[in-house]
């Protein structure tokens, strides 16, 4: 049996809240969250629901991580230096 | 390229003539960079040839440009404009990569695989003492009971596909002719029911996770 999948399922259940953001609500907030995170200001409690959704939703998480890493990369290297 | 603050971007994109043309040109550069970046790191895109990836990146950047212009009035200035715009290209590219990876998978066959309950076999973490093994057995029994008594068939299929088969949520939604938000809500409801039922049986999900942890 896939133990890692069981652990994922249990982690998802444990981290469940009564109210959670939808994917649309999450993605609306991600650009702001990324800029805050890049600036080292991401410990705002208002972002906790977003962080929970990102832990639960691998699709949103993939999109968030790509955006975050791109912004970090772009800040070091502007687009027209490609 | 010209560096612009948020108000400058908005003003230029809404303007006419050379000012708008220059802003659109610069925005295309940003969006193409974002779509290429997303595809280069997507675990769903490696099967594509380089030329196909380049074309896909161009297509996604063009789609993103249309979306940015369509949603321009919704930009609230809570982030940098470029970060907000990048998100359109990244989302388009990653969604395209997931479709490429999963578009030819037979979901019907995949969902015929043993589902959640069947897969919750005699799992245990080695080394396990007899007491720990017994506890794990009780926990698995409670989880199986929760799944069988609390979840709808659709919820069981969704959890099986996403948690055990690694199917992306948006791809399963597309297969079911649903949407991402509806499927997320379906799963959220399932998780809430499981959590509530486990607690009524005296099991805390975090403690269950700890019991199946290798360093417990």
How would you explain this protein's 3D organization?
The complex is a heterodimer of chains A (82) and B (216). With 82 residues, chain A is mainly α. Helices cover 68% and strands 0% of the residues of chain A. In chain A, helix 3 packs across helix 4. Chain B has 216 residues and is mainly α. Chain B has helices spanning 6-14, 18-41, 50-70, 81-102, 107-111, 116-119, 130-150, 153-164, 169-175, 180-200, 205-211. Chain B is elongated, with a radius of gyration of 23 Å. In chain B, helix 8 (153-164) packs across helix 10. The chains are: A mainly alpha (82), B mainly alpha (216).
Number of helices of chain A: 4
The assembly state of the depicted protein chains is heterodimer
Uncertain regions of chain A: pLDDT < 50 for 5+ in a row? Answer: none
Q: How widely separated are the two ends of chain A? A: 46 Å
The beta-strand count of chain B equals 0
Notable traits:
A: about 80 residues; mainly alpha; B: about 220 residues; Rna Polymerase Sigma Factor, Chain: A; 11 helices
Layout of secondary structure:
The complex is a heterodimer of chains A (82) and B (216).
Chain A: H1 3-14, H2 23-38, H3 48-56, H4 58-76
Helix pairs in contact in A: 2-3, 2-4, 3-4
Chain B: H1 6-14, H2 18-41, H3 50-70, H4 81-102, H5 107-111, H6 116-119, H7 130-150, H8 153-164, H9 169-175, H10 180-200, H11 205-211
